[in-house]
Write a structure and sequence with these properties.
Shape: globular
Strand order of the largest sheet: 6-7-8-3-9-10-11
CATH architecture: 3-Layer(aba) Sandwich
Order of helices and strands: HEEEHEEEHHHEHEHEEHE
CATH class: Alpha Beta
CATH topology: Rossmann fold
Distance between the termini: 23 Å
Helix content: 25-40%
Number of domains: 1
Oligomer: single chain
């Protein structure tokens, strides 16, 4: 199904954005029990071009989620530079939307009102256009029949669908995704990957996706970066140039190279072209 089939409501205009830049970024946290400092990032560098789709792979607890929080403005670096559009990130912004692992829905709002929240808060369109866009997203993300349910009445996977729908509704300039499909079964995951790709092709936001799935990374991203154990550093990069929609079976070379890099096995090149 093409992009237009998913999004038929009134179009929203997205202002073009310069790249995301993290230069020499360090960030540490205090361990909850002992109070010891945990170094999540140390001299971390990452640049993401406007409209690029980048996936970050790496071990659990390596600092991947920290990268997203810094870009979103939910946290601040101890040192280094975090910029979006040549402006330092100092606070949160409706231009940058983070879909976290815990969904973070408003518990007093039903599915429709959660999805529409950002549109209404930002005055994005009249009531009819908002209703149409929410309807498109409800259908695309498999939420039909659950429109009036509260978050407490939803499964973990359905909560993540609502969180993704809410993020896509406002067409942010920067979309940050922290394992958004982890709680879904294989068929639902594939469907939502299609929805995400459709939304990206339609509005071309800058996307940074954190995932543990090599297949998901090469299915969706223009570029895949692999980070080390904490403190995170980029240890491998793969550029995926295959045409969309992609057939994972035809990307065996880049898949094997990335899987080997994730496992810490030797690989022949620091940059891989996936075609």
């Amino acid at each position: 199904m093409g992009a237009a089939a998913y999004f038929t409501g009134e179009p929203f205009t997205v202002r073009e954005l310069d790249m995301i830049r993290l230069l020499g970024v360090s960030k540490s946290y205090a361990e909850a029990r002992s109070g010891a400092r945990i170094q999540a990032l140390d001299g971390f560098d990452l640049e993401v071009a406007a409209g690029e789709f980048v996936a970050i792979l790496g071990p659990s607890g390596s600092g991947k989620s920290t990268v997203l929080k810094l870009i979103a403005g939910f946290d601040h670096a101890d040192s280094g530079t975090v910029e979006v559009g040549d402006e330092p990130v100092t606070t949160i912004s409706p231009r940058r939307v983070l879909v976290a692992q815990d969904a973070a829905l408003f518990p007093w709002l039903n599915v429709v009102d959660n999805i529409a929240f950002g549109l209404r808060a930002q005055g994005r369109g009249h009531a009819a256009s908002i209703t149409a866009r929410v309807h498109d997203l409800v259908q695309a993300l498999g939420l039909a029949g659950a429109e009036r349910r509260l978050p407490s009445e939803l499964s973990g996977g359905m909560k993540q669908r609502v969180a993704l729908a809410r993020a896509l509704a406002v067409e942010p300039e920067v979309l940050l995704l922290d394992e958004p499909f982890a709680a879904l079964d294989a068929l639902s995951r594939e469907r939502l990957q299609d929805v995400l790709e459709s939304a990206w092709l339609t509005a071309k936001p800058t996307v940074v996706l954190v995932t543990h799935s090599v297949d998901e990374a090469i299915r969706l991203a223009d570029r895949v970066v692999i980070v080390s154990e904490r403190p995170a550093r980029i240890v491998h990069t793969a550029i995926v140039t295959a045409t969309r929609p992609r057939d994972i079976a035809g990307l065996g070379d880049v898949r094997r190279t990335l899987a080997a890099a994730v496992r810490g096995l030797p690989h022949s090149a620091s940059d891989t072209q996936g075609r």
